Amino acid sequence: xxxxSFQKILGSAETKTIEQINKEIDRLVEKLDDKTRAEHKAWxxxxxxxxxxxxxxxxxxxxxxxxxxxxxxxxxxxxxxNQTLSVGEKERILKHISTSMDNNTKNExxxxxxxxxxFSLIY
Length: 123
Known about the structure:
With 123 residues, the chain is an all-alpha fold. It contains seven helices and no strands. The chain has one domain.
């Protein structure tokens, strides 16, 4: 049952927001055993910590970047943090931003940040 329910959530993820997906997973996990619930809670705390660290890296780097690269990075962050966009919409926008960046901008970002920092959707 859990596996089918989880697959169903993931199968429709593209049309849902991250918040909607997280709520569905949380409801599903609440029905499971204590150990699984504790592991899920620990995983969520780690994800939140990783996100705080990612944001910190981005905000430390921002003043070091050229104006053009700052604009692209701000657009990336604004897209990632937009709670009204579905996962699919975020993927399309981030892909467009990535493919529309010139090499100088890509290289400047790559000096300071990883692709995971720039294009992660888990947050």
